Write a sequence for this structure.
C-alpha cells in the first residue's frame, strides 16, 4: 500500500513538473510570437515605455524606442506621443522628460507630446498612463518597447483599462544577437509568469521591470 501511495505521489509530481514545463514553453513561444507582430491601428496615443537615460540623454535602448515612435507619429498612427517613466535616486531628469526632449528636438510639436513622469517599472508606468488617459477621455494606445517586452506591456496596459496594441522597435541592443534575444525571452518569460501569478512587477534591467 505504501509503495502504491509513493507511486501516485511520484506521478503527481511528474505531472506537475511537466505542466510547469509546458507553461514555460508556451509562454516563451507566445512572447516570441508577439515580438514578431507589428500592430499600429489608429489610436489615441503612442506610448513609449521608458528606459535608462543619462543626464537627460536617452540610452541606446531608449533612443531606439523613441525613433520608432517618431516614425509611427509621422505615419499618422496617433496625434500624441506619451513618454513615460520616473527617475532613479540622484537623477536630475525623469525618463519621460528625456524622451519628450529628444522628440521635441526631432521636430515633434510640444502639444503632441505628453510626459508622464511616474513609474519605476512597467506596471507603475502603465497605471500612471491609464490615469492620464482617463483624465483626457482616451482609451486606445500603440505601445512602443522592445520586442520581447511587448506581450507583458500589452497585458499590463489592458489590465489598467487601456485598449493596447504593440509596435515593437526592431533596432537597438535588445535585438542585436540571438544570444541577447534568447536571454531577454527567458527573462521576460519569468517576469510575465510572475505578473500573471501575483499581479506584481519585478525590478530589473531597463524595460524588464
Amino acid at each position: 500500500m505504501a509503495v502504491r501511495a509513493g507511486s501516485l505521489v511520484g506521478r503527481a509530481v511528474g505531472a506537475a513538473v511537466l505542466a510547469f514545463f509546458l507553461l514555460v514553453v508556451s509562454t516563451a513561444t507566445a512572447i516570441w510570437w508577439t515580438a514578431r507582430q507589428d500592430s499600429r491601428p489608429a489610436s489615441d496615443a503612442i506610448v513609449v515605455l521608458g528606459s535608462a537615460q543619462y543626464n537627460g540623454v536617452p540610452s541606446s535602448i531608449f533612443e531606439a524606442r523613441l525613433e520608432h515612435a517618431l516614425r509611427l507619429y509621422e505615419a499618422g498612427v496617433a496625434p500624441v506621443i506619451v513618454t513615460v517613466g520616473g527617475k532613479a535616486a540622484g537623477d536630475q531628469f525623469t525618463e519621460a522628460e528625456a524622451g519628450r526632449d529628444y522628440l521635441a528636438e526631432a521636430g515633434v510639436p510640444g502639444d503632441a507630446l505628453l510626459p508622464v513622469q511616474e513609474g519605476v517599472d512597467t506596471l507603475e508606468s502603465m497605471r500612471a498612463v491609464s490615469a492620464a488617459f482617463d483624465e483626457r477621455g482616451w482609451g486606445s494606445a500603440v505601445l512602443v518597447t522592445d520586442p520581447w517586452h511587448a506581450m507583458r506591456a500589452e497585458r499590463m496596459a489592458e489590465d489598467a483599462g487601456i485598449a493596447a496594441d504593440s509596435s515593437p522597435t526592431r533596432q537597438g541592443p535588445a535585438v542585436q544577437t540571438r544570444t541577447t534575444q534568447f536571454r531577454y525571452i527567458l527573462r521576460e518569460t519569468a517576469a510575465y509568469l510572475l505578473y500573471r501569478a501575483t499581479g506584481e512587477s519585478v525590478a530589473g534591467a531597463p524595460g524588464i521591470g
Remarks:
- The radius of gyration is 19 Å.
- The helical segments are 2-35, 60-74, 95-105, 122-136, 150-159, 178-198.
- The chain has six helices and seven strands.
- The first helix runs from residue 2 to 35.
